[in-house]
Amino acid sequence: MASNPSHLRALYRSILRELPSRPLSAPSPLQQRIRNSFSTASSTEKTTSRIQQVEQHIQYVKAQRMYATLLERYNPGMGMEEEERVRLTARRVGMDLPPEFMLGKKGE
User: Fold this and answer.
1) What are φ and ψ of residue 20, in 5° steps?
2) How far lies 83's CA from each of 16, 62, 79, 88, 103, in Å?
3) pTM for this model (two decimals)
4) Residue 48 in contact with residue 1, Cβ under 8 Å?
5) pLDDT tens profile 64-84
């Protein structure tokens, strides 16, 4: 059904797209292993259940990437220190922090 070479090539490229980018001259061990599994697998090993499993893994990795992107977008203060979050929250509601707070921060 879906075991034609063009579909397998598309699956392979989809997997590589989801991995962190690296130069082609120095592929990671994971990329090499994926390439070997696609190129050396016999035709009996490329069953529809294995192809479906690869497609599910690709969908999972895409969903995880999208989740991380949305988490960063809608929770911008996650990577900030508490003082910076407080300052930005105050600015969001139209207030500035008192000068004592700002001087205390610079004096440290």
Assistant:
1) -60, 140
2) 40, 34, 12, 9, 13
3) 0.63
4) yes
5) 999 999 998 988 777 888 888
